[in-house]
Amino acid sequence: MNQTRRGFMGKAFGAVAGVGAVGALYAMKRSWDPLPSVKAAGFTTIDISACAENKLIVEKWRGKPIFVLRKTAEMVAKQDEAETARDVIVDGNHYLIAIGLCTHLGCIPAYREAKTDFKCACHGGEFDSSGINTKAPPPSPLVIPPFKINGTTLVLGESGPEYTKMKEAGIVA
Amino acid sequence: MAHFEKANSLNEWLDQRLGVNTLQRVLAKEYWIPKDINFLWAMGMVLAITFGILLISGIFLLMYYQPNVDLAFDSVNYTIMQEVGFGWMWRHVHAVAASVVFLIIYIHMFTGIYYGSYKKGRELIWISGMLLFVAFSAEAFSGYMLPWGQMSYWAGMVITNLFSMGSLEFNGLVEWIRGDYVPAQAFLDRFFMLHVLLIPVAIMALIGLHFGALRLPHVNNQNGEEIDFEEEAAKYKSGNKAASKVIAFANDFMSKDMFVVAVYLVFFFYLVFWNFEFAMDPVNFDPANGLVTPAHIYPEWYFLWSYEILRPFDKNIGLIAFAFAQVIFILLPFLDRSPNTVPANRRGLFKYWFWAMLLDMIVLTAMGKLPPQGIFSTIGYVAALVFIGLWLILPIITKLEKKL
């Protein structure tokens, strides 16, 4: 009788303590989560319909510079398939959307309107107007951030179908 | 209610209530240390004193430091360095001690490896010591974030990125650790908390375990000789101190210990007052900027060897090699299959293993600092492979070792 009562007390104590421990751990995990305000700031909405042709716009998303470039019809006509595959097409216009950090060591390349390309001042790397690396040292093209087309605006940080397609084709990074 | 006599002295009064005489006997007066040791046996005390110095200087820095991304850099580089009386001294003491403590840890570790002080009952001393190394590494990293300079920011970015586990792309985990997509306010605040509270508490608990694990097996000696501590203690207590192989921890051994500490402190304060620059990376005197990456990102000297094991490989293999390097030392007592507890120079192939490992870690450290180009990159790659290879052959060569 005594033994069963002790056994029961032990199990009851263990169960209550166990539930408490799991609850406490969950609360601790949640306290380390990014805050709602931080998460909300992780989505940047940009209206790209107002962009002028061949003029680079630099936005900021999650602490990183984002290049937005509306291409001229002439630029689009000259592009090859690999370049066009990286274009974000909104309302029939072609845009470059990319994280503006050189894939070599993270400097911010400058846009040269006359040559319609990017030049990184740090180590001389170059990218074409689709963000593809054309001159070493950068090892890979500029990274395309997750985006979702919403009418004439872009939501950065959310993966829309166009982004998912690019990602599956392996051209976003 | 227990029975208490009226005490005739303060000591007796305390002894009745706290057992201070028993404590003193167990922890000091009758805690026996072999005579056959050298100055390397004082490194534990040197480390304890250095930890104390870090704690005291840290308390003074804590009074003016601001864990805020807009204020942190100036609170260190202006308030503490320029305004607070002797603030510059606390900062230089803290920075130099944080660097030098790793030098002493490595000496302490390699002393243990050389003399086989991780075997035959001393396994837990080794394990708790390696856990202390991990805790000190975390403490050094979290502290490095606090001035919120360029190196703080980018080291924080790179190290937290390691938790994405390469191609597994655990980006959610990285964001959870940071509390943001990039190191920002939440990141600085939580690493501040880790640096000033959680990790120091863990370190103090581990130091307690480390000392506790030492008490029963006692410290090793220069010849790995098994000592009958009761018999030698009896000789000592009977007054025949010359014939006894042991001395008391206090005051005999402590007086010698503190002599080594004194010599060390002269060297330490020489560094603090005349040569502190090695502990102050110039890049970290630029405020953190998420839009500009420094040309070269490299860790402090004490992490270079493991950084160099990460660097020469592909992303995923590098991470696995890095993880291997982080945990493998802790397994030393179980990978060393030899029953011999003697200095490495009497242990056949292990003698060469010891010096090869020490040399390899020095090479890795040197290559980690150099840019990964040409011949340096090749040397680093070979040294990383040698490191892994040495650990893989350790059980085999120690198994082959003749029993002495």
Summarize the SSE layout with pairings.
The complex is a heterodimer of chains A (173) and B (404).
Chain A: H1 2-32, H2 36-40, E1 44-47, E2 56-61, E3 64-70, H3 73-78, H4 81-85, E4 88-90, E5 93-99, E6 110-112, E7 117-119, E8 126-128, E9 133-135, E10 147-150, E11 153-156, H5 161-168
Antiparallel strand pairs in A: 1-11, 2-3, 3-5, 4-5, 6-7, 7-8, 8-9, 10-11
Chain B: H1 10-18, H2 20-29, E1 32-34, H3 43-62, H4 72-83, H5 87-115, H6 123-145, H7 150-161, H8 171-178, H9 185-215, H10 229-237, E2 246-248, H11 249-274, H12 304-310, H13 315-328, H14 332-335, H15 349-369, H16 374-400
Antiparallel strand pairs in B: 1-2
| N-to-C series of helices and strands of chain B | HHEHHHHHHHHEHHHHHH
Percent range of helical residues of chain B: 55-70%
The CATH topology of the largest domain in chain B corresponds to Cytochrome Bc1 Complex, Chain C
The percent of residues in helical segments of chain A reads: 25-40%
So what's the overall shape of chain A? elongated
| Main sheet makeup of chain A | 4 strands, antiparallel
Tell me what you see in this structure.
The complex is a heterodimer of chains A (173) and B (404). Chain A has 173 residues and is of the alpha+beta class. Chain A folds into two domains: 2-33; 40-168, Rieske Iron-sulfur Protein, CATH 2.102.10.10. In chain A, 32% of the residues lie in helices and 27% in strands. Chain A contains five helices and eleven strands; from the N terminus they run ααβββααββββββββα. Chain A has helices spanning 2-32, 36-40, 73-78, 81-85, 161-168, and strands spanning 44-47, 56-61, 64-70, 88-90, 93-99, 110-112, 117-119, 126-128, 133-135, 147-150, 153-156. Chain A has a four-stranded antiparallel sheet with strand order 2-3-5-4, with no helix packed on it. A four-stranded antiparallel sheet of chain A has the order 6-7-8-9, with no helix packed on it. Chain A is elongated. Chain A starts with a helix and ends in a 5-residue tail after the last helix. The model of chain A has no long low-confidence stretch (mean pLDDT 86). With 404 residues, chain B is an all-alpha fold. Chain B folds into two domains: 28-297, Cytochrome Bc1 Complex, Chain C (Up-down Bundle), CATH 1.20.810.10; 304-404, no CATH class. Chain B is built from 16 helices and two strands. Chain B has helices spanning 10-18, 20-29, 43-62, 72-83, 87-115, 123-145, 150-161, 171-178, 185-215, 229-237, 249-274, 304-310, 315-328, 332-335, 349-369, 374-400; strands at 32-34, 246-248. A two-stranded antiparallel sheet of chain B has the order 1-2. In chain B, helix 3 (43-62) packs antiparallel against helix 5 (87-115) and helix 3 crosses helix 11. Chain B is globular and about 75 Å long. The interface between A and B is medium-sized, with 16 and 16 residues.
